[in-house]
Write a structure and sequence with these properties.
Length: about 240
């Protein structure tokens, strides 16, 4: 087979771009598989019966597990998690400490989203004062713990924060508590609690993978076309 004619610069460009495009496609397929596994795990664990929060201490992978709580909120130490949006509307998520009486364990319960249309006034919320029986589920951010820095506007309570760091907050309050966020299920103490399980579904990742593979195929086809055309042009030269 005669050698195809492809100039050095385009050849180097193809050699650099083609593996990258293929690698990006494979990476997107891997992300799609991760999201499928995450959604499957979420569905299985959310269908299970809730367990007492005291039982979570021996659970190695607590993500999405349902929890049963019985006790009361500490309204004096509330947090607003800033920059939460729903359908384009600005808002916050309300976090409050909850003391589970059967286990004696504290936890940070996310009561859900509420709108905050006017930042000149603080978000308004109410807290049930009576003892409550609640169901919640454990949220563990993928690839990270429920950590971050406590970026508060001031030290007064309630606080507006951009991250929630339980360890430092429990230390400040002189308490020991659960290390992950508990997201409240719909009920008497809940605000809007329709959190998406994943920000981007598996089908989106597959779509992006198809685009990367299509670009790699187009690049390969264009390279082959230019090489054949260059070879033909050389043969036609006198």
């Amino acid at each position: 087979m005669k050698r195809l004619a492809l100039r050095p610069v385009p050849a180097l460009l193809v050699l650099a771009l083609l593996p990258l495009l293929v690698m990006l496609g494979v990476w997107q397929l891997g992300r799609a598989e991760e999201k499928r596994a995450m959604l499957k795990q979420y569905a299985e664990r959310r269908a299970a019966e809730p367990i007492g929060i005291g039982q979570l201490s021996g659970v190695e992978d607590p993500a999405y597990r349902r929890v049963r709580l019985q006790g009361h909120f500490d309204a004096a130490h509330s947090l607003w998690l800033d920059n939460r949006t729903r359908e384009g509307q600005a808002g916050v998520e309300l976090f409050q400490p909850f003391l589970d009486q059967p286990s004696g364990m504290w936890s940070w319960v996310n009561r859900g989203w509420l709108p905050w249309p006017d930042r000149r006034t603080l978000p308004v919320f109410t807290t049930p004062g009576q003892s409550l029986e609640l169901n919640a589920w454990v949220y563990v951010p993928p690839g990270a713990g429920f950590q971050g820095h406590a970026d508060a506007m001031n030290d007064a309570w309630p606080r507006l924060v951009s991250f929630v760091a339980p360890a430092s907050l429990w230390a400040e309050l002189g308490r020991s508590g659960y290390a992950h966020e508990l997201r409240l299920e719909p009920g008497v103490a809940a605000y809007r609690v329709d959190w998406p399980v994943v920000a981007m579904g598996p089908e989106k990742h597959v779509g992006y993978a198809v685009q990367w593979f299509a670009l790699s195929a187009a690049l390969s086809g264009l390279s082959l076309y230019l090489a054949l055309r260059g070879r033909t042009h050389e043969r036609e030269q006198p």
